[in-house]
Amino acid sequence: MRIGIFGGTFDPIHNAHLFVAESARILERLDRVLFVPTGNHHYRDEPRADAAHRCAMILGAIASNAGFALDDADLRASATGYTADLLPQLHAKYPQAKLTFVIGADSLVNTAWMRFDEVLQSLERFVIAPRPGVRADALARVIAAVPAPLRERVSTLNLPEIPESATLVRTLISQGRSIRYLVPEPVWQYIVAHRLYGFDAGE
Fold it and tell me: What's the predicted TM-score (pTM) here?
């Protein structure tokens, strides 16, 4: 079995996340893609919605796709938030699986990864989704720094750049503007029902 690991805060999950995950599933011939939300914020601000809300939105968003699943390994009390610590847990949970990590180019270029070599050694593949604002030369420099024996595991997905982001979704909500159709309908309904991210039904 070949499993994709798609980590992030998913605060909230949106349509671009789903497009990247489905594209990776098809292009990389994955049997399943696991959405792995993190509770740690080493590289980002603390999530605005708590883990229970974010997991509920993920489950709503992926319910119609049998190739998607949620894994809460990075939300447990013992989780460090570092991918190098997460991957051994996932290998133990899915001992027969070969793992492919899926990531946006911005997360790779704009953050300093701890024990990156160790991460790559734990994976069959490490695939990068293009993101607006990430220069090709900056991405090339990061890849060039990977030791040659591991570099062949790294590749870029042949996808268009999609500007949608969780930051955009939260910003639009804060401005009283619509996010419907930027997020899956179950996520939109959940945000409305639970008044997340400062949503005001009167606006």
Answer: 0.93
